[in-house]
Specification:
324 residues, globular, alpha/beta
Amino acid sequence: MTDFQLTRTLDENAAEAALRTDVLHGLTGTPKALPPKWFYDARGSELFEEITRLPEYYPTRAEREILLERAGEIAAASGARTLVELGSGSSEKTRHLIEAMPGLDTYVPVDVSESALRGASDSLLEEHPRLRVHALLADFTRALRLPESPGPRLVVFLGGTIGNLLPPERALFLASVRAMLSPGDALLMGTDLVKDEAVLVAAYDDGQGVTAEFNKNVLSVVNRELNADFHTADFEHVAVWNREREWVEMRLRARSDLLVKIRALDLVVPFTAGEEILTEISAKFRQEGVRKELASAGLELTQWWTDAAGRFALSLSVAHVPAG
């Protein structure tokens, strides 16, 4: 008998309602935008896995290098008996941490995909039969109530996903993470670092066109789920470096004037030639900026590790003891 429990905090219609809201607001706003979470249906997830193996896309390899090299240090510094992973997916990278934590009691994966949670949990429990797994079917961008489990807790947020949030969204997210921590608990966060513009743009505009197909997949999702009539060939994938804000922007640019019908919303969306949909930002960071954002949320950066080439960082921060 395996020690697995799953708590659902999303109802079965939550994803459809969120997609309707995001498409309606995003495609009637100025400029037009769609959130990057809608890339990830089954096909989008396959494409992203392909992207992580491309020579141009370094973040996944760089983060894995740090985890392999530093898992023991991370485990010792956190002293964690509970490991919480936000956006856990396949839990593949987290395995390195779990293997370095012989005293780990409970693993709490958090994801919006029940099949991903069950699949990852099954394989982890085969490898670690004494581990308790309490999965949360939840949206980590909303306030979470963690299950009862022994402390200290280590919350991990990997992949540089923090960079997909705008600065005000990052502040809210980090504050929500702090709210779920007790004094002495910690956050391990992956951040991609500022570097040469050509390296950054190439990571989001590979020579094989895989990232372009991934970007356009959001249109396929809207077509299928909301009975729309986007033609992916009508849009060009664009990746640009915003120097002022230090983030990469992925966009879809209309090749000509066109009208798109989204029947489930009774909506017609006009595009002029050259008009763009912003589909993702991917902010890049500097250590001092990360330190300040964490401090604003009540978290103190205590450890900073990078890969050998200095492309990517993992930071460990601890929850402040409240004054008084």
